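Write out this protein's structure.
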Amino acid sequence: MNIVLPLIEDLQDAALAQALQRRIDQKTKPLGSLGRLERLALRLGLILGSESPRLAQPQLLVCAADHGLAARGVSAFPSEVTWQMVENFLAGGAAVSVLARPHRQALSVVDCGVKHDFVAPGSPDGTRPGLLVRKVAPGTADCLEAAAMSAEQCALAIAQGQALVRGLPGNCVLLGEMGIGNTSAASMLMARLLGRDIAHCTGAGTGLAAEALERKTAILRAVLQRHAQAQAPLQALAAFGGFEIATLVGVVLQAASERRVLVVDGFITTAAVLVAQALAPHVAQRCVFAHRSGERGHAVMLDHLQAEPLLDMGLRLGEGSGAALAWPLLQSACLLLEQMASFASAGVSERAP
């Protein structure tokens, strides 16, 4: 599989980290009293390479695609919900649409492989506002019978994700996804890349009952056995899918190489980071993990990536909803660095030595 990996350097910078920490400690507050918000400010400063980090023009990408495995009943919802939800995003009625609006996050929906035609009737070029068509194919193959995608399709999806980021303004990208069946793909990627039993990686997804969850787990176990030879990260990605996850891998790689802040949503988007991190070991340094999902397995993924999620609210919707919800915390961390007075500037006495 031929993909071009961008250069992603180690962000470790002792001098900058020391300068940032000194600036945080000199603010008019007891040491460490803003808790994890201080660590978030430090992280953002290191990602953006500045003692005064500023977030500019946040881009929220919801990558959408269908999965052939969904026909086997691994989700509580039918596959047509994928395209119906894309229409809901475009109409502004989805949770992520509502959460993104007040914070001026530019929401783009990317058709990476939805089994539906979104061309706008009457439009000269068929385009629709808010929709980016980067369709690799109308859904992946049933991965119980064959690889979800070919090596060439996987490479194309990754390359398209990289190209998307190169065309975006701003210095931060929020990750979202939509695809009936994609918790199955993410669970199998986790199982293969982390060496975990699939039963510990598989959750209810869109709300499967206990018996249906058992059946889903058995199907995923059979898929893993079917593709036992797919051990390397890109082999596993091609074997299990999906086009939206592969596109997100490209998004993550390119954004990391450009030193943009990556705001990672939940289980599916973290699976994309897991693949990207396996390809380029400094990727996770650029990531802010929005929340710990209610989906089984997400906490294990986060622990593997040494991630400190900002929120823990039992969310398991996806779409980028958790990333949009956590965004004000990133803004607050930057504003405290920029606008909060120091002891010296405010004329406030410091703590006695």
